[in-house]
Structures are given as structure tokens and as C-alpha cells.
Amino acid sequence: QVQIVESGGGLVQPGGSLRLSCSAAGSLFSTYTMGWYRQAPGKQRESVAIITGSGSTNYADSVIGRFTISRDNAKKTVYLQMNSLKPEDTAVYYCNVDPLGSGNSPYWGQGTQVTVSS
User: Fold this and answer.
1) Burial letters for 56-86: b for 16+ Cβ neighbours within 10 Å, e otherwise?
2) How many CB atoms lie within 10 A of CB 15?
3) pLDDT recorded at residue 53
């Protein structure tokens, strides 16, 4: 079992910014693939951004140029910097910890609500 703690969600106006944080326990954190996913009401969960242990990143087309995923291995934390937020970014955001890079990890955070509204 991997302990995961998320923070940083909230209410923001369109065009605003938020930064999400996800901390995960594990002595091998630096090798973990970490990902941010989101689920809007009535929609399936979708991948937003992923970062591997080597630092490679992958983004959903809808967030390219606006969101940045990064990691601080010393703090065992991954971040999602979200800029130029749009109402369609409104969702519950979940952190996923993938120790084996399998793409099918069962380790999910509790979720944090992001609401973009004027």
C-alpha cells in the first residue's frame, strides 16, 4: 500500500492558476511514474499529465501549453501547475502512483476538487 496525500484544489476564475501537490511515501519514489488524472461529472476519468522516474512527461492535448507536471524527489512530491484555467478544466483531480510504470496502478489519491468559474 502506498500512502498518497493530495492538496491544492479550489475555486478559481477563468484564466487563473492553481498548483496541485501530491506526496507519496516510498523509498523508491524517485523511480515511480506519477500521474495526474481528472474526472468531470458524468464523464470518465482521463489522463492529464504523467511524469516518469527519468523525468519524461506526457500531456493530454487539451492542457498542452497550460499545465506543467514536475517532481521534487527529495520531498517525494509531484506537482501540477495549472495556468490559463478554463471552465472545462473543472473536475476532481486524482494523483496516481505507479511504482512499476505499468500504466495500471491501483494506487490513487483521495482526489481534490478544482472548480473554474466566474
Assistant:
1) eeebeeebeeebbbebeeeebbbbbebeebe
2) 11
3) 94
Widest distance between CA atoms in the chain: 42
Q: 85 vs 6, 16, 35, 55, 63, CA distance in Å?
A: 19, 5, 19, 24, 9
CA trace torsion 106, 69, 4, 107 (10° rounding): 0
5: cell is 496525500
* 1 and 108 Cβ atoms separated by less than 8 Å: no
Closest CA to 78 of 11, 7, 12, 16: 7
Q: What is the pLDDT along the chain (118 residues), one digit of tens a residue?
A: 789 999 999 999 999 999 999 999 988 999 999 999 999 999 999 999 999 999 999 999 999 999 999 999 999 999 999 999 999 999 999 999 998 888 889 999 999 999 999 9
Q: Which cell is 38 given?
A: 481528472
**Counting beta carbons within 10 angstroms of the beta carbon of residue 29, is it exposed (0 to 12), middle (13 to 18) or buried (19 or more)?**
buried
